[in-house]
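DM from R.C. (forwarded with permission)

"hey, sorry to bug you on a friday — could you get me a structure for this? deadline for the figure draft is monday and I only need the backbone to look sensible"
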Amino acid sequence: MIYILILLPVAIILLIGNAKQKQRENNKPIIDRSYVGDSHKQPVPAHRNAPSVQPALHNSNDEEQSVLIVDDQMAIRILLRELFEQEGLLVYEAVNGTSAIEVASSHQIDFILLDLKMPDMDGIEALQEIRKFNKTVQVAMITAFGDPDKLDKARQLGVQSFFTKPFDIDYLRNYVLISLNNARQNTAE
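My reply, with the result:
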């Protein structure tokens, strides 16, 4: 029942977002974003339904910031992908902890939204592996369960904040954008 309560608003938001996006697309020129054949460029963005770890956008701007969304629920990944793409961020997705480690090790990631409970390994185990090669990436956890021991361990690994499902999408977006902006300002100083 809780999945229905989560998925129904997500589906409505996606339908409204798709309608708005189609309206915007009708008012702008078509841009070819295919990169097939250029091995030095980013991979071709994957279809939403594929269990992908590919970036959604490609921009040659070195200043572009990126977010990695790690959640085994496709609806949440789609919702967050569209939300952050609209903000101009480079968005990566991972369906589980193993994929998250792979993406984080092969791409420059500025912020990770990490689900705590996943099938192959939990978010804590995935973050422990990521911290072995990236000690500074900003991380916030998404969880439906608030196990105090896991939350304490997450804090020790540098998790900045926790969002309980179902979360306030506007608050989450603002939190990530402010965190990325603060990090950019700190590195500019």
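R.C.: lifesaver. The domain at 54-188 is CATH 3.40.50.2300 (Rossmann fold).
me: no worries. Helices lie at 2-26, 74-86, 97-106, 123-133, 148-156, 169-188.
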